[in-house]
Amino acid sequence: MILVLRALGVGDLATGVPALRALRAAYPGAELALAAPRWLAPLVELVGVVDRQVFADGLGHLGWSGPPPAVAVNLHGRGPQSHRMLAGARPRRILAFANGDAGWHDGPPWRAEEHEVDRWCRMLGWYGIPADRTDLALRRPGPGGLPTGVTVVHPGAKAAQRRWPPDRFATVARELSGRGHRVVVTGSPGERDIAAEVAGRAGLPADAVLAGATDVGELAALVAHARLVLCGDTGVGHLATAFATPSVLLFGPVPPAWWGPPPDRPWHEALWVGPRPVGDGPAVHPALAELDVAAVLAAVDRVTAAARSRAVAGRLVPAQAAAPEPARSAG
């Protein structure tokens, strides 16, 4: 049994996918259990390598009742709480970052300024487990009864400093709607008011507001079959990366170098004006506030063009692959 702790949110799970796949490859015959929040179950299924989910909402008592795992892996954080949580399952071995406060001196040192994907790939590499940081794709769910080909505008974020102003989201949504995009506005139940404000300012119909109307599995399906995603530094942006859906992501205060999409995929673009001094209170962060509508619309044009070129190249590959190989000499 391999027990992995990642009891966090959507973006955290998505950025942990390369590490989870590396563990699956390293221990092909072992059961792989992931400790993660219950509500993430539809996404855990899409990772494709997890055999069992152990429900855990954040740090605390894990409630592990099975036999001691052969290996416990801390993909949650630097410790000490997460280290102690895993140690409570009495594993024979723990893979984690070194943390003196937890009495754990094995493992590599933690680096604060590191991309979240690279962080966990580096940790596993220290233990001799290679991980491919580009292995970010999730299984594509069927659309079910959800609309396809829509443009997803997701104006919310957990922290107020990471929320681009609603009036600017609305201006972009109105422009895209005028260009022929079918725009929907998503969010959590607690973000329904801001979603309704954006939709109202953009002149969208009432049924364009999907905030609070989808669970995480339905949101993933919506993004997987979307035309475009526009959002801040949130889990929805990571879903767009996982499904190769063209996306424009608005960052601040954290830079894209820590949480953004791979820079070599031009159909995803992370905008950031930084670094900037930290703002006061819940106001939008200066690095995000400086992003204007024109910059966002220009980024939309670029990712759309990149996605179109990628689609054309993809259609050309089979014909090229089918071409006969030139004859080789015996020498």
Structure description:
This protein is of the alpha/beta class and 331 residues long. It is built from 12 helices and 10 strands. The strands form 2 sheets. The chain has a 5-stranded parallel beta sheet, with helices on both faces. Helix 2 (17-26) packs parallel to helix 5, helix 6 (166-178) crosses helix 7 and helix 8 (216-224) packs across helix 9 (235-242). Residues 319-331 have low confidence and may be disordered.
Structure keywords:
12 helices; 5-stranded parallel β-sheet; 331 residues; single chain; disordered C terminus; alpha/beta
Instruction: Quickly give the structural class.
Output: alpha/beta
The chain-level mean pLDDT equals 92
Inertia-based shape: globular
Order of strands, main sheet, comes to 3-2-1-4-5
In total, how many beta strands?
10
Helix content: 25-40%
Question: Major sheet: size, sense and barrel closure?
Answer: 5 strands, parallel
Q: In whole angstroms, how far apart are the ends?
A: 51 Å
Sheet-strand content, in percent, reads 5-15%
Instruction: Note the run of SSEs as H and E.
Output: EHHEHEEHEHEHEHHEHEHEHH
The low-confidence runs, each spanning 5 or more residues with pLDDT under 50, are: 319-331
Rg computed from alpha carbons, rounded to a whole number of angstroms:
21 Å
